[in-house]
Amino acid sequence: MAKNEDPNELKKIVSHAKEYGYVFPSSEIYDGLSATYDYGQYGAELKQNIRQYWWKAMVQMNENIVGIDASIFMHPTTWKASGHVDAFNDPMIDNKDSKKRYRADVLIEEHVAKIDAKINKEIEKAAGKFGDSFDEAQFRATNPRVLQNQEKIDAINARFKEDIEKENFEDLKLLIEELEISDPVSGSKNWTEVRQFNLMFSTELGSLADGASKIYLRPETAQGIFVNYLNVQKTGRMKLPFGIAQTGKAFRNEIIARQFIFRMREFEQMEMQFFIKPGTELEWYEIWKNKRMNWHKSLGLGEENYRFHDHLNLAHYANAACDIEFNFPMGFKELEGIHSRTDFDLKAHEEYSGKKLQYFDNEMEQSYVPYVVETSVGLDRLFLAILATAYTEETLEDGSERTVLKLPVQLAPVKAAVLPLINKDGLPEKAREIMDDLKFSVNVQYDGKDAIGRRYRRQDAIGTPFCITVDHQTLEDGTVTIRERDSMEQRRVAASEVSSIIEKAVDLKPLLKQL
């Protein structure tokens, strides 16, 4: 399901999402609010279905992983202990001419990505020339242009990594100037100094301003898991290794919030913290890398659309980290992060709270602070990945065109639509009878307005996998027509079999069994 590159593709997806009830600009009647969006009637259903598949795969399928739902508001010392108060910053740089603000690290990463694209172009050209005999590894190791570009990338990355680690923002600006990176909007290279910007939203807890306490909207959901580690371990009688999963909202005051729902100030995470014996973290890190990649691939969005990207600049809590990147309409971007967080979080909370957060190992007959491997996927980003891959414009054999969302059938907001051919002769009543039977097991829609072809197109546009048409023959022999969204094939089946056919087609069990 790989998609052709189209510079207008994201605009088409944004437009389609609004027109068909998936995503609306927030507060639109007041001209909107930057980088905030509301999920419409179909978007909310799709989001819920994605969340449910993640939860079932992560919690239901693993007897040593449980789920919680922690509060968004947390004691402010939580964020001091986690390092967010002191270290949750992005390096920002402004262009003096366009007055636009950018993340300095992103500007450099995008420059590196352009060089990497040149390497991939050379490889694609050579692969086309030599066919099956092409050896990519040998080509990378010997081709002068590839080696030259890779040398550039390595040099930039090494310097960039050192600048970030040492917070050498003067050299970071110098690097941007030396690479002749220009403002994407104006083309200007007239940059300000690089400076840090903290991303946390703060508010006040209390009825009176002078007696209120400053607290933060959580910038991640992980800390809610860490502060509940001991509660879950004791009440659940959990033994290492075990995991705690959670989905929920997080908030970051992103200066550069853009690219539709890819980067927002209010977003939802699906995270799991896996608590393990110290010394086993890198082994579990590799295990969870593979497990999470397999989960993503099970959605059928195309294996070529995924890749791992190792972090050059490790967070203060990590000893290994990578992203699963997805080929969005705007290129490969982070979809999920897998991090070996060591024992940083639990030790920090021990220190700041004065409470022991240790695990007693019966085999070793000693207590220790567990290490943690984290998997964290952005639900909104996954929503965008699925929507973007599903969006398809087709020209049919008769020359007509249709726009269809080829969503994974298990995740589609509406699983089936029941359509009476005409609104008389007892057909609406029979259609309602079928719908009333289906609605106990799947989300189903009744659609009796307009010509049948127009109704098919409408259901294609919202991604409904099956349309069930009730006609006069239904009244004679009890059969209906089932039309499949992707192939548009139609077949007659007994109305009594419709429920089992639909339920089997949209069941999550086959997907879960793949894992």
UniProtKB/TrEMBL annotation:
It is an enzyme of class 6 (ligase). PANTHER family: DNA POLYMERASE SUBUNIT GAMMA-2, MITOCHONDRIAL (PTHR10745:SF8), GLYCYL-TRNA SYNTHETASE/DNA POLYMERASE SUBUNIT GAMMA-2 (PTHR10745). This is Glycine--tRNA ligase. InterPro entries: aa-tRNA-synt_IIb, aa-tRNA-synth_II, aa-tRNA-synth_II/BPL/LPL, Anticodon-bd, Anticodon-bd_dom_sf, Gly-tRNA_synthase/POLG2, Gly_tRNA_ligase_bac, GlyRS-like_core. Catalyzes the attachment of glycine to tRNA(Gly). One of its GO terms (molecular function) is glycine-tRNA ligase activity. It comes from the Bacteria. PROSITE patterns: AA_TRNA_LIGASE_II (PS50862). It comes from Reichenbachiella agarivorans. Its EC number is 6.1.1.14. Keywords: Aminoacyl-tRNA synthetase, ATP-binding, Cytoplasm, Ligase, Nucleotide-binding, Protein biosynthesis. SUPFAM superfamilies: Class II aaRS ABD-related, Class II aaRS and biotin synthetases. The gene is glyQS. The lineage of its organism: Bacteria, Pseudomonadati, Bacteroidota, Cytophagia, Cytophagales. It is found in: Cytoplasm. Pfam families: HGTP_anticodon, tRNA-synt_2b. Belongs to the class-II aminoacyl-tRNA synthetase family. It catalyses: tRNA(Gly) + glycine + ATP = glycyl-tRNA(Gly) + AMP + diphosphate. Residues 179-420 form the Aminoacyl-transfer RNA synthetases class-II family profile domain.
